[in-house]
């Protein structure tokens, strides 16, 4: 056949992993026999959104890549008062966003995720707060915080806001 070896392959689609055997193939299409199906664990079980002020240089590209690898479901980029790479108001850095989307696509493929992280540019921190006001839980981290650590805060809220797997009622 065109593909040389006719064997079993695994593929991930819509949160499921499928085990299939290729039965026929051409350069444009494959016919497969379904051997098995199970939930995919390559996708995050919880929804986590991350908002990051635009960073200069390759730091922002690294953030996009690592957010995908860590299972972040949405990444919001915004312009803060101290943001150095200032996108023009009429064209919010379209070239950079296209580059970030290419990095996102490649990181998604490499990490084996079947879903795609949402990537969005938000005009300002104020707009970000407005856009996220309906989320069940928002956490703002500040690099100069002196008393409350992330660990102690998580310990204090874990019972009140325990994440539930999708489609699972709270118990």
| Biggest sheet layout | 3 strands, antiparallel
Shape: globular
> How would you write the strand order of the largest sheet?
1-2-3
Question: What share of residues are in beta strands?
Answer: 15-25%
Structural class per helix/strand content?
alpha/beta
Order of helices and strands: EEEEHEHEHH
- What is the oligomer described by this structure? single chain
Strand element count: 6
Radius of gyration: 21 Å
Termini Cα gap: 53 Å
Enumerate how many helices there are, as a single number: 4
The stretches of 5 or more residues where confidence is low (pLDDT under 50) are 1-6, 164-171
Q: What can you see in these coordinates?
A:
The chain is of the alpha/beta class and 171 residues long. Helix content is 26%, strand content 24%. It is built from 4 helices and 6 strands. It has helices spanning 58-69, 94-111, 125-131, 150-157, and strands spanning 8-13, 16-25, 30-39, 49-53, 74-78, 118-122. The chain has a 3-stranded antiparallel β-sheet with strand order 1-2-3, with no helix packed on it. A 3-stranded parallel β-sheet has the order 4-5-6. The protein is globular. It starts with 7 loop residues before the first strand and ends in a 14-residue tail after the last helix. Residues 1-6 and 164-171 have low confidence and may be disordered.
């Amino acid at each position: 056949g065109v593909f040389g070896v006719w064997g079993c392959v695994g593929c991930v689609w819509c949160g499921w992993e499928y085990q299939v055997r290729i039965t026929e193939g051409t350069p444009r299409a494959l016919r497969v026999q379904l051997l098995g199906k199970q939930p995919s664990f390559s996708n995050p079980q919880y929804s986590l959104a991350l908002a990051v002020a635009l960073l200069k240089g390759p730091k922002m590209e690294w953030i996009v890549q690592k957010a995908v690898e860590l299972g972040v479901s949405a990444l919001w980029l915004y312009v803060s008062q101290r943001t150095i790479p200032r996108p023009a108001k009429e064209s919010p850095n379209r070239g950079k966003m296209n580059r970030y989307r290419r990095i996102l696509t490649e990181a998604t493929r490499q990490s084996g995720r079947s879903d795609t992280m949402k990537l969005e540019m938000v005009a300002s921190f104020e707009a970000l707060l407005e856009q996220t006001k309906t989320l069940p839980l928002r956490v703002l981290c500040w690099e100069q915080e002196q008393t409350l650590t992330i660990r102690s805060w998580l310990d204090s809220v874990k019972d009140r806001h325990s994440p539930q797997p999708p489609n699972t009622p709270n118990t």
